[in-house]
Design a protein that fits this description.
This protein is mostly helical. The protein has helices spanning about 5-35, 40-70, 95-120, 125-145, 150-155, 165-180, 205-220, 235-260, 265-280, 285-310, 320-335, 350-375, 385-390, 395-400, 415-420, 425-430; strands at about 70-75, 75-80. The protein has 16 helices and 2 strands.
């Protein structure tokens, strides 16, 4: 065994393990969102996550990867690599094509899960399945090609190491468009425009989900080196930790002194905002900058949450505040604090300008394409669940099962369950 073969093998193990950590984040998304929504919609959250992983993976394999990393056509889109076939010799990565694809597929699944949270408790499940196709096969891959696949943004020099813009800001603005089109949950806003509090079903469950996301983020950021021997791995890991801690700490202290209580959902989302904020610059900024980026991310998350409520835009889990607001800031922060080219480190204005341009292009792309896509989907199937389905709960309406039988919210649904079972194919055959 040569030294080169050994190094390649170690890199492969590192990237596969990192991809597995990112895939585990789907468990984090599932628990976080299920804990934030009402019991009667918990199973629907889980099913959407399974749809993300299963359908999204297949679509990215067939179409998305080629559009994202295929041979560049005019800086806009890739034209080879569909089903991992065709000429992909231009990809200069230290691992095999299959290993690289697995890592990128894990990223793709994370993007669609961001949108899932913003439309929780009222999206038609069939419409969501169609939107998965749109996001994983078209929206994210084409935006990703611009910045990572050799497209026009990468040629300008945009820096987004692990995806504050490509994944989080794009996904967050897609989530915003979806939330606006679908509208708020029934009863969320009073006739006077005041937001009615929808109590989370299980905050300990949501916190476990956040911890899983935090764990997976080390694969998200450090794994983006694609090499186990990259000397930046330790630094990437520590700034990831510092930014997440800073985002959580600032929201904890802010709510404690502002409202005389430390608000658990705010602290959970503040920590996640810190993780989103550092994702673009984790390989480019220092420790002090990471702490500052995390703190600002936490405060921006809270400001964006208030902004949504003032405009009566219902986002049950805070997808837009966590991912879009913090992702935008993290992308711009690279232009300010990057040790090589940052405005505050003697690099001038160029990198900051490129970051702002790239960010604008990606968020507009995500928002507009989601808006158009959902309007078109609405001509095929209703985008929103019916009022009856929403009242009964999407678990029973779309999946015929309850997440927590003892919950009082489901007492009225027991007859519906029995009727559903009476009409089962097995019973009909036995009759």
């Amino acid at each position: 065994m040569t030294l080169e073969t050994l190094s390649s093998g170690i890199d492969t193990v590192w990237v596969v393990l990192s991809a597995a950590m990112i895939l585990l984040m789907e468990g984090g998304f599932a628990l976080l969102e299920a804990g934030f929504v009402r019991y009667k919609n918990s199973v629907n959250i889980i099913m959407k996550v399974f749809a993300d992983i299963t359908i999204g993976t297949l679509l990215f394999y067939a179409i998305g990867f080629g559009l994202m990393y295929g041979s560049d056509a005019g800086g806009l889109v890739g034209i080879t690599g569909f089903f991992l076939n065709g000429d992909l010799s231009h990809l200069d990565v230290p691992v095999s094509l299959e290993t690289f694809w697995l890592f990128q597929a894990a990223f793709t699944i994370a993007v669609i899960s961001i949108v899932s949270g913003a439309v929780a408790e009222r999206i038609n499940f069939r419409a969501y399945l169609l939107y998965i196709l749109l996001m994983t096969a078209i929206i994210y891959p084409i935006g990703g090609h611009w910045a990572w696949g050799g497209g026009w943004l990468s040629k300008l020099g945009m820096q987004d190491f692990a995806g504050s813009a490509v994944i989080h800001a794009l996904g967050g603005f897609s989530a915003l468009a979806a939330a606006i089109i679908i509208g708020p949950r029934k009863g969320k806003y009073t006739p006077l425009g005041v937001s009615a509090i929808a109590l989370p079903s299980n905050l300990p469950l949501a916190s476990v989900g956040a911890f899983l996301l935090w764990f997976g983020w080390f694969g998200f950021n450090a794994g983006s080196t694609l090499s186990a021997t990259d000397v930046r791995i330790g630094h990437i890991a520590i700034v990831t930790m510092l930014s997440a801690a800073s985002g959580g700490a600032v929201t904890l202290l802010y709510t404690l002194f502002r409202f005389n209580r430390s608000d658990a959902p705010s602290v959970i989302n503040g920590s996640l905002a810190g993780l989103v904020g550092i994702t673009a610059g984790c390989a480019f900024v220092g420790d002090a900058a990471a702490i500052f980026i995390g703190a600002v991310s936490g405060l921006l998350m809270m400001a964006a949450t208030n902004w949504l409520d003032r405009r009566q835009i219902d986002d049950p889990v805070g997808a837009f505040p966590v991912h879009a607001a913090s992702g935008m800031w993290g992308t711009i922060a690279v232009g300010l604090f990057a040790t090589d080219g940052g405005l505050f480190t003697g690099g001038g204005w160029r990198l900051l300008g490129v970051q702002a341009l790239g960010l604008t292009a990606l968020v507009v792309w995500g928002f507009v394409m989601t808006w158009i896509g959902l309007k078109l989907i609405g001509k095929i199937v209703p985008v929103r669940s019916t009022e009856e389905e929403e009242d009964l709960g999407l678990d029973i309406s779309y999946h015929g099962v309850m997440a927590a039988h003892q919950s009082h919210e489901f007492l009225d649904g027991e007859e519906h369950i029995r009727a559903f079972q009476d009409e089962s194919p097995n019973q009909k055959r036995s009759e």
